[in-house]
Amino acid sequence: MLSLTKLIVIASLCSAVFFIIGILIGRFATAPDLPNWLRKMSVDGDSSIIEKLMKEIKAENIKENLEFLTKKPHIAGSEQDEDVLVNHIIKEWTTQLDGVRVYPYKVLLSYPNATNPNYVAIELENGTEVEVSAKVEKILNPEQDDPTVVNPFNAYSPAGVVTGDLVYVNYGRIEDFMHLQRVLKVDLNGKIAIARYGKIFRGDKAENAEKFNCTALILYSDPVDYALGTQVAVYPEDWWLPGTGVQRGTLYMSDGDPLTPYYPSTDSAYFLNESEDLGFPSIPVTPIGYDDAIKYLSKLDGPTVNSSWQGKLNITYRIGPGFVHPYTNSKMKVSVHTYNERKLIKNVIGYIRGEHEPDRYVILGNHRDAWIFGAVDPSSGTAVMLELSRAMGTLLKGGWQPRRSIIFCSWGAEEYGLVGSTEWGEDLNKILSSRAVAYLNVDIAVEGNASFTASVTPNLQSLLYEVTKKVENPNRDEYTNGRKTVFDTWMANIPSSYDPTIPHVRDLAYGSDYKVFLQILGVSSLDIGFTYNQNYKLSSYPTYHSVYETYHLVSRLIDQEFKYHQALARVWGEIARTLADSVILKMDCVRYAEKLQRIFNDVQDTYRDIFSEQGITLEYLATAVKDFRKAANDLHDRVKMVDLKNPLEVRRVNDQLMNLEKAFIDPLGVSGKPNLRHVIFAPSQHHTYASSSFPGLTDALFDIENDPDQEARWQQVRKEVSIVTFTIQSAARTLRNVNNIGGL
Question: Do residue 267 and residue 358 come from a single domain?
């Protein structure tokens, strides 16, 4: 047994050792001469990189990129898209970036029959066809004269020849069909519907026509939505859609490869049979131009439409069904010969490896495929991405390396239903859901030259405002008038409805490649670009998805000097660089809390009385929103106190910021839809393109007063209120101080 004296000596020695160790730890932690790796990790990236990146992005390079990309049509699955353009991007990124990979997927696509084009016509009693629609778009510019241009079609329409009485259904929205059936008492059974493009996704129009037992659907672009009347100058003199222009587009109501829903289309995948329900319409659908549409609409019988259904064709718009004399006994004929085929598509992924956090990814994406030349959609975005990757590659060779990895993605087959990005997201789900910081999408870089525009998750909103204040306004007149930055003109042209000091941002929904990141992976996302004057009230830029969307359109009529493309590249690049280089992620949870409060206030103001009648309380939802706001404020207070020299503390806080979006994901899906999982932002069931706040609750309340099973519908409303409440409360918990175990 040790003596008391020896024990005292040992204890004294231990105390001395621990004291010395403590001094060394304290000196190491506070000394100015930190290890180089720790010092570099503890500060934001070199601020001079901002100016270098801005200067390195050249407008003339973007112009050259766009000219190359639009020389030939490049529909998904074609040699031009999957070989020529893919190989070009691989070559560029191999020399510019740290690495490049190709992810191929064999997927089900859809094409028009080149030798038997789709058309519509009036069929006389004796079977003779008159007023036959144009089977190809008229050549108005030598640039569009190419034998590989695909004829007008709607992807995934079934083939078929249908005859019947024609009925005008306005925009083909669910409320339009309800008005026809409930108010006007129009019998839609067996009718052929004709609808104008706009307001909602074309696939929703086809689905609605099916629900009301129509046998076919014709889609056309009315001048009120695409040419502001018939007296304006049109392409190639101006950017408005000519009467011979036809909008192509998919009808697919889901996303990814139709044969492998929710799983990647890899060699080992289980593929559905094409005879199964794949989310395609069961009735033939085809588009036409408004020069053809007037032939049929001008001959319609029936009552005249109300003012809200009136387009800008020089006719009296009528409902139908059927035609007036001398076509009283004639029928509308729809002849569709579209077919489906499995094709190989490719995603090209280039990357810059992060120096300190290579396992954290800032992802930039743009799709590559176009229905024809795609000078606006998507090649304006592709041209910008290629220049941005070149500029960042130049900085990389000059010694810059971001803290986190930056990934560039060129997606295949987006136009068919976000196919390439969805397959990649499904393929790399386990990696991306835990490592992706944010997804930054540019589908269309420049569709107009009036203002910047953005759709964004609320936590990236502050960063977006900050960056647009750094980028010079590409509009010379606006700059001369004192609006020096992109932010200035954005705020002047599209102001916020609730805060006069900031511009308006849209909520993200479904319309582009951010969908898989937001809805499935729970990754904060944005989509940015320059747009046209919002006073036009257009459904899209006029030549959308037509053969007239050419290099000439962009270089002569939209952005002659490519200054808007350059400005967009600068905004996109600086957002990515900031997220990749900042020690603490620039993600603002307080903005999210404010957005949730506004949504809650709208729900309460709109439904307070009817909820009260049904005994539904929003008390718990109000508490959840309040708790979320407190947690968000507390987190940002802690962020200000973070020891930047402690990489574990930095990582912990950044994980809380980065993973917030995942807290809003319901694995069971919104309204039972497994491909839509974001409880706060997702499309409504009747408008796939538009975002709906609290979408499950919105769907449960839609047309509820006309449901014969009132008890079941109100039970669904109660369930949706509960789900939203639980989700927001759970999200609040993810923001709380992780050191406080009692807060679990």
Answer: no
CB 78 within 8 A of CB 148: yes
The residue range of the domain holding 729 is: 589-743
Both tokens of residue 463?
Answer: 């960063």
Q: How many CA atoms lie within 13 A of 622 on its CB side?
A: 10
Whether 614 is in a domain gets the answer yes
| In contact, 163 and 257? CB cutoff 8 Å | no
Inform me whether the pLDDT recorded for 132 exceeds 60. yes
Assess whether 475 and 374 both reside in one domain: yes
Distances (CA, A) of 744 to 154, 546, 638, 732, 735: 51, 55, 18, 11, 11
- DSSP annotation string for 615-646: T---HHHHHHHHHHHHHHHHHHHHHHT--TT-
> Are both 600 and 532 inside the same structural domain?
no
Neighbouring-strand partners of residue 35: none
Pairing relationship of beta strands 331-336 and 160-164 according to DSSP bridges: antiparallel
% of residues, the chain, pLDDT over 70: 93
Residues 499 and 480 reside in one and the same domain = yes
How far from chain centre, in Å, is Cα 295? Answer: 35
| 524 and 454 fall within a common domain | yes
219: left (phi over 0), alpha (psi -120 to 50) or beta: beta
389-413: pLDDT as tens digits = 999 999 999 999 999 999 999 999 9
Q: What is d(CA 424, CA 267) in angstroms, rounded to the nearest whole number?
A: 14
**Claim to verify: residue 642 and residue 709 sit in the same structural domain:** yes
| Inside any domain, residue 15 | no
Note the pLDDT tens digit of each residue in 545-573: 999 999 999 999 999 999 999 999 999 99
List, as own/partner pairs, every contact residues 228-235 make where C-beta atoms lie below 8 angstroms and the sequence separation is at least 24, other chains included.
228/312, 228/536, 228/538, 229/312, 230/312, 230/313, 230/314, 235/140, 235/141, 235/542, 235/543, 235/548, 235/553, 235/557
519 DSSP assignment = I
Sheet with 331-336, side-by-side order of all strands: 129-130, 119-123, 331-336, 160-164
Q: Which residues of 626-649 are buried (b: 16+ CB within 10 A; e: fewer)?
A: bbbbebbeebbebbeeeeebebee
240 in a structural domain = yes
Read off the pTM: 0.93
Residues 161, 118: Cα–Cα separation, whole Å? 10
Could you report the per-residue pLDDT of 449-507, keeping only the tens digit for each?
999 999 999 999 999 999 999 999 999 998 988 999 999 999 999 999 999 999 999 99
Question: What's CA 268's distance to the chain center, in Å?
Answer: 29
- CATH code of the domain in which 258 resides: 3.50.30.30
Tell me the DSSP string of 314-349: SS--B--SSB-TTSTT-EEEEEE--EEEEEEEEEEE
Chain center to CA of 379: 16
